[in-house]
Specification:
With about 525 residues, the chain is mainly α. The chain is built from 21 helices and two strands.
Amino acid sequence: MLFNSYIFIFIFLPIALIGWYGLNRLGRYRLASLFLSAMSLWFYAYFNVSYLAIILCSIGLNYLLSFALARMEIKRLLSNSNTLRPDSVHDIESKIQKTASADKVSLSVPGKIGLLAGLVLNLGILFYFKYYDFFIENINLAFHADFNLKHILLPLGISFFTFQQMSYIIDRALGRCRHYDFINYLTFVTFFPQLIAGPIVLHSEIIPQFEDPERRRFDSASFARGIYLFVLGLTKKVLLADTFGLMANFGFAQTFSLDAVSTVFVILAYSFELYFDFSGYSDMAIGLGRMFHVELPLNFDSPYRSCSIKEFWQRWHITLSRFFITYVYIPLGGSRKGRARMLLNTFIVFLLSGLWHGAAWTYVAWGAMQGLLVVLDSLGIVGIRGRKEKRPSRFHIPAPVGWIITFTLFNLSLFFFRSSSMLAAGQLFKNLLSLRFNGKLFEIAAQLDISEIYVLKQALDLAAPAAVNYLYLFVMLALFVLAFYLIFHKNAYERATNNELTSGRCWGICILFVWCVISLSQVSTFLYFNF
C-alpha cells in the first residue's frame, strides 16, 4: 500500500486512526497496540502477501533471541545474588530494567553469544533475500562456474526493518536496553509510517512513546501539524518527484544516444526526482507519526543546501548514517586509533552504505566515490568560508563555491547510482565530455505532456504547432527553477514545526491536497522502496 494512493488516504488511514484513538479512549491500551500492529501488517502485506511470512519470521526470531538473553540474564543474577530467591522473578526483572541504560556496555558470555546470533540471523536474512543472486553471479563470473540463481523477489523494506531489529539486538547483547513486552516490540517494528522506507528508528525513541499513556490521547495540535506535513510531503512526491521522473526515466532509457546538454538535464531531473521523492516520503512518515501522536526522528534536512560533502551526509538519510556510525564506525575504532584508521573506517562505512542501497557494482562504485569524497573532506585540505565548523585548512573557498562543488560531485555520483550497469554509467561520463548537441533535449522536455498544461498545449496545437516543443522546454526550465528555489527555502519540516497554522496556510494545504488527489491516477512507488 502506498501513501500516495486512494485506498491509503480514504480507507486505511481513517480506519487506523479511529481504531487507535477509540481503543485508547476506552483504556484498552494493549488492544490498541495490537490493532495498530495488525493494521501495519495489512499495510505491509498489501504489496505481496508472501512478504508477511518473512517479516513475521524475522520479528519472531529476533524477539525469541531477546527473550533468551533475558532468561540468561535472570539466571546469571540468580547465581550471583544472595538476596534474590529463585521465585522472585519480578524483582530480578526490575533490577535488569534499572541497570539497562544507554551508557552501560557489558559483554558477558551470554551477551557475546546473543550478539553473534543476532548478527548471523539478521545479516543472514538480508544476505539471502537481497544479495544471494549478486554473490552467485560474481562467483560464476570469477570462477567460470554455473551455479543456479534463485531470482528471489526482494521483500519491501527488508533493509529497513532488518537494521531496526539488528540495532535492538545489539543493544540487548551489550546490556543497553531491557527486554520489551512482545506487543510493544511488534508495534515498534511494524509501525507503518516508517516500515517500508524509514526512518530507521531506535527502540529508545519509539517504545517509550507507546508505553506513555499521554501519547495515546488525541492531541489536536500534533494532529493538525501531522496533516500539514503529510500534505506537503505528498505534494513533493506527486507534483514534483513524479514529474521529474518522467524526464529521468526516459533519459536513462536513452543513455547511449544522449548528448552533453541532455545528459546534464537528465541527471538533474533524476537528482530532483530522488530528492523530492525521498524528502516527500520522510515528511509523510513524520506527519503520519504525529497524527498518531508519535514523534519520528528527522531523516532528511535539506541536504542540497550543503556546502561540503561531510555536511551533505549529516543531512541526507540521517538515521542510516546514525546506524552506521553507531554500529559500524565506532566498533571499528572510530577516530580513537589515529587519523589513518579513522579515514579507513569512514571509507568502509560508505562502501557498506553503497552496498546497502542495492546488490550491484554500480552501488558499490557510488559508495566508494562518496567515501573518497568524505575522506578528502576530512583531510581538511579545503575549508569553506562562513561555515560554523572551523577547521584548519590549507585553502579556503567561499560557501557558494563550496555548494557548487558539493552539488556537482553528488550529481556526478548519481551516474553510478541510477545506471543499470557500469557500462551505462561510463557512457554517461562519455556523453558529458563529448560537448556535443544533437537535439535530444527536446525529446526529454516532451515527456512533460502533463495534464496541467493540456489546455495551453491544445491551443498551441491549433495556432502554432511548431511552438509546442518550446512550450515543453519552457515548462522543463520552470520546473528546474522551482526546484532550486524550494531547496534554498524553508523545508516542509521547518514549515510544519515553526510556522503558525493560519487560515491562509490551511487553505493552501487544502488546495494542494485536492490537486494531489486529482493527480493520483498516475500512482508511482517511492524510489527508496527498491533499497
